[in-house]
Amino acid sequence: MTDDPVVDATDAVPDGPGPTPAEDAGRHAHALLRVDSVSKVYGSGHTEVTAVADATMSVDQGEFVALLGPSGSGKTTLISIIGGLLQASSGSVHLGDVDVTSQSARELTRFRAERVGFVFQSANLVPFLTARENLLYVTSLIKGSSRSEAKARADQLLEELGLADRAGNLPEQLSGGERQRVAIGRALMNDPDLVLVDEPTAALDTALGRQVVEMLRREIKSRGKTGIMVTHDLRMVEYTDRVFEILDGELTHVEEPSALSH
To answer: What are the residue ranges of helices labelled H in 83-205?
Structure first.
């Protein structure tokens, strides 16, 4: 047991009755995102450590799912592989018709810029750029993007996220919740197919955390995107469509959020 009741509860979750991720994947044969037998191993011999072991999962377009597990379970490693930030030791990841795991470093840079949006545990905003400039910075990484269209899109996103009056503020002038909302807007700036969210509520209280996750769900669902949220917090999975449970690097079960409420 730990001093964190949420983590303790999460540790018990993989004993649930839901189907295995491989069984579940068979029900989503035409999913936008397909992860097939992905492993990540560090070191070799007696120093070998398996961070992710033979992970298989499928997520449909328009779905917002949770990847639930305690700290150190391999959650962040898995979404880093899915998003092309980290190379798998074996297995494959497909997003639509793109085999992410076979891309070159240059191709992955373009893939991430054009097709993936990231929301990290801390907002990771550029401290010397305003909220609006943080969104516009994303489009500067995409060759051939229109500056005028980018400005219009940034203003639209800030309006939708309730930040129109904060567009000219630097990150240090924003609250924690506002910074996370800017991070959500930044993740959506490139109109990505896939949005990957890593512990978005870790630095927020429960009320703000719920607000941020509700907003993530609304934005992902309304835009027909595919989203994965990494979390160890059982209180946040109610906003997702399905919950993939992970422990010690192994995906164990897929549950309906209602099965995990407490």
So the answer is: 105-115, 131-140, 147-160, 176-188
Tens of pLDDT, residues 11-55:
444 456 688 888 888 888 889 999 999 999 998 888 899 999 999
Distance CA 174, CA 183 (A): 12
Could you give the strand order of the β-sheet that contains 90-95, starting from the edge strand earlier in sequence? 49-59, 33-42, 90-95, 98-99
Rounded to an integer, what is the distance from CA 195 to the centroid of its chain? 5
Strands of the sheet containing 116-119, edge to edge, are 116-119, 194-198, 226-231, 64-68, 242-247, 250-255
According to CATH, what is the number of the domain 5-126+177-256?
Answer: 3.40.50.300
Looking at residue 236, the DSSP 8-state letter turns out to be G
Count of CB atoms situated within 10 Å of the CB of 74: 23
DSSP 20: P
User: Where do the structural domains in the chain lie, given as residue ranges?
Assistant: 5-126+177-256
